[in-house]
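Researcher: Re-running this chain for the archive, since the previous output was lost when a drive failed. Same request as before.
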Amino acid sequence: MQSFSVIGLGKLGLSIAVGLSTQGRLAWTMNRGQEQRNAAKFQLSPSLPMYSSIANIPKPNSCMILAIADNAIEEVSEAVAAHFGSALNDLVIVHCSGAKNRSALAACEAQGAITMSLHPYQTFSIATAKNFKDIVWGAEYPPIEPFRTIAEQFAQDMVYTLGGKLVQLTPKTLEHKPIYHASAVFAANYLNALVGLAAQTAQEAGIDPNEFLPQILRRALENSLAGLKQIGTGKFPLTGPISRGDTATLREHLAHFRSAPDSADITRPYCHLGIATAEFACKQGLITAAQRQEMIQLFEEELRSIA
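Model: Regenerated structure tokens:
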């Protein structure tokens, strides 16, 4: 049975560590920050080795997972390569970035390591192994055999142990991997921002967001998920004034925003999102190009007025 180790104990790294640890598959962890190491001790076995630097790790194991910030991957890869040298030969090194290709691990590959990227297409607000249940991991393997097969075997072992599923990313996706990652940003980060803005706007209207928003949010998300198969058919379940070409209602919204305290905090995102939604609605065939242009012009004029 192969063993794994995790470098980086943020929300993603700790989630991976907890999931592998519960299955008895975790050899050690490493994190430079004392605070994160202390937090991890409450979720991991007290007997599990936990290092504060790469230089303190006595030896590598079968598969090392770099669950660290994108801008640190190359630096940490170089540090791992410098510390372990040829001991990395035929071992597997993984990074979990959604935006970086496996080439970020070039320093380890130069020492004979088998490198790949495995990106969990998920949002991590808290560290828990439940984050991985039934989610997709986008995988990039080495192109040459037998390294590709070895990498895939490790990926299957790791991802299936965590309860997820693997999808090998296509050459097109790998060529534009930051766009792949941006799709997850739209689905998670921007969605959270939208909910926050809806709550802020509800408060401005004098209603309790906790009373009014949950049901409409659930229904909207259900409609959107059901509509994924309808993208581009003109049947996507987009509702509201933009989908109807109702510019008059949009004008009323904007007029009342102007009287609100800190009105720009609501008006600016409303207009930017309105422009994006008008473009989307037109592309889906829900409104005409003329209606789209009328709404975009309305939003742009309002943005200029608060600039």
